[in-house]
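Running co-folding for uridine-5'-diphosphate-glucuronic acid.
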Amino acid sequence: MRMRLKLKTVFVLYFTVSLLGLIYALMQLDQQISQLRGELQKLQEHIKTSELAKKTDVPRIYVITPTYARLVQKAELTRLSHTFLHVPHLHWIVVEDAPQPTLLVTDFLAASGLTYTHLHQLTPKDRKLQEGDPSWLKPRGAEQRNEGLRWLREMGAAAEGKEAAALEEAVVYFADDDNTYSLQLFEEMRYTYRVSVWPVGLVGGMKFERPVVEDGKVVRFHTGWRPNRPFPMDMAGFAVSLRFILTTPQARFDGDAQMGFLESSFLQHLVTMDDLEPKADLCTKVLVWHTRTEKPKMKREDALQKQGLGSDPDVEV
Ligand code: UGA
Ligand code: MN
């Protein structure tokens, strides 16, 4: 009897230990499986993006960026170029607001790793903001965007065969040097028939401005200021097909446009509200932000300079 009891205890003990072992092993396995699942997902995403990067049959995106010399210029261009490096088939048209190309931008672009065209167009003095003017007094970047359009039209007129066919599919976007752009934005605009539109975050004294879409059509605009402007949208909120730009030579920016009418001055030549193609999930997603960089304070620099101890002017900032 005692012997049988002992055997039973040993058996129960053995059984329990084995069961616990098995449960432990299963738990470990489960953990490993979910770890592997995570890794697999990451790998799949990686393959997807690197395949997209290799793709050359997607429509080209021409990005026109006006830029001008100031302390933060190189920092802005660096940030922008790092975004663009992730966008397949992007051609950057950088237009300096300068009488001739500067060394800083020339060297910067040469080292950027991007496909680019470097242009320059000085804003005439009477159209340029002066030190101390409020930033809204005169339109900024108008002459530079027009210079970018001129280059595109000249190139378009000269293109033949395969290249001309590629231009037919391309899209043009005006990207200021200080905004923040998500990568998804470029995939949204890549297929634009005429003019595509989407929301812009942190603009016009609002969390966002956007075209309001009903039954797939833009019917009005969500904006805090003068909603009756023909196109109450920020420059960052639309893209235009290159084909359309090439066939509408009168479409350009009016450097004398009233405050808030610069975008309208260009778009009026191209479309009506009814023609706009809403992107970013029918204009429900914010994929670009109208960020503005604070002007760096140079109080200490100025003080040190007076003593001949300023930062080495030969170091590019
Ligand atoms: C807003 C819009 O986002 C701009 O697209 C529009 O041009 C501007 O208003 C306007 O109404 O003119 P905001 O942030 O106030 O933009 O303008 P900035 O970012 O200071 O300038 C727009 C672009 O023009 C930038 O890429 C900037 O580098 C360039 N710029 C600015 C010049 O080329 N020259 C200048 O003297 C000033
Ligand atoms: Mn800006």
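Result summary
The chain has a mean pLDDT of 93.
The chain is about 40% helix and 20% strand.
Job closed.
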